[in-house]
Amino acid sequence: MPVAMITGATSGFGRAAAYRFAAAGWSLILTGRRSERLEALEQDIGNKVPVLTLTLDVRDAEAVARAVEELPAEFREVTCLVNNAGLALAPKPAQEVDLADWHTMIDTNITGLVNVTHAMLARLIATGAGASIINIGSVAGSWPYPGGHVYGATKAFVEQFSYNLRCDLKGTGVRVTDIAPGMAETEFTLVRTKGDQAASDALYSGTTPLQAEDIAEQIFHVATLPDHININRLEVMPTRQTWSPFTIDRD
Ligand SMILES: NC(=O)c1ccc[n+]([C@@H]2O[C@H](COP(=O)([O-])OP(=O)(O)OC[C@H]3O[C@@H](n4cnc5c(N)ncnc54)[C@H](OP(=O)(O)O)[C@@H]3O)[C@@H](O)[C@H]2O)c1
Q: Hey, what's the signal peptide range on this chain (predicted)?
């Protein structure tokens, strides 16, 4: 059975994707920082499909490279890498945020994603036709909004990095896709507000946000397309989310 490696599998899209791939019989390499959640996942899924859990901070390039180097034989031939680990912080105007929060977003969403990709490229190329890298970007990478500052910019990086990877991977059979979700109800807003459950509940109340399973389904769909099809970018929003008009500062 094919192997999928999913970063940020302890919550949200990554966790839902783990269940989706497991339902189809894929072997799984599941990573995240919260080992107790990884253990719970292993207990839940590990009796159905082979599961390897790795407690890993994607920002730690050395640890990422070592973990990939030391993959047990049965998990070495990876067919799909889902670069999902990421976060937004500081939902305030740029002029009011802590610099540390900007650095955390850059270190996780850009440096972390690059760390994992670099470590995994040789493995994916060895797998060849049918392999894919699925990067989780965001609508924030294309559409500006107040408070999006560095988060949106990191996701714009994910989009362009995905396209550029495609150029270099020409002829290897490895596909690259940027999946860009809109508003989805996960722990994302809880993390963004540093634990403000009321703010998180308020954002998702009275509307119909995407659920983690909706994006997991898209991830699985992209990963299981015929070898000759590469979706470059997939932007997915809730039907009830659209854009605002330009705003104008007036006297
Ligand atoms: N929800 C949305 O509205 C939305 C929309 C567009 C894009 N996205 C993107 O979708 C991805 C998944 O987010 P989500 O909505 O599923 O949020 P989530 O429920 O908060 O899940 C985020 C996952 O990323 C992991 N993670 C964060 N920092 C990490 C680090 N330094 N090292 C390793 N893992 C790390 C977390 O695991 P640990 O804490 O255990 O490490 C967690 O499993 C992110 O890239 C996010 O930017 C989300």
A: none
Which residues fall within 8 angstroms of residue 182, CB to CB, at 6 or more apart? 138, 139, 210, 235, 236, 237, 238, 241
* Ligand 1 binding pocket includes 203 (Cβ within 6 Å): no
Task: Ligand 1, residue 210: give the atom nearest the CA.
Answer: 3
Packing angle of the helix pair 61-69, 113-127 (nearest 10 deg): 20
**Lookup: tokens for 213:** 């399973």
The protein residue whose alpha carbon is closest to atom 1 in ligand 1 is 184
The CB of 187 under 6 Å from ligand 1? The reply is yes
Task: Catalogue the active-site residues.
Answer: 151
Which domains are delineated in the chain? Answer: 3-236 (3.40.50.720)
For ligand 1, whether the C-beta of 184 sits within 6 Å is yes
pTM (2 decimals)?
0.98
Q: For residue range 94-126, what is the model confidence (pLDDT) as tens digits? A: 999 999 999 999 999 999 999 999 999 999 999
Report CA torsion sign: 13, 68, 38, 2. Answer: positive
Cβ 181 vs Cβ 142: under 8 Å: no
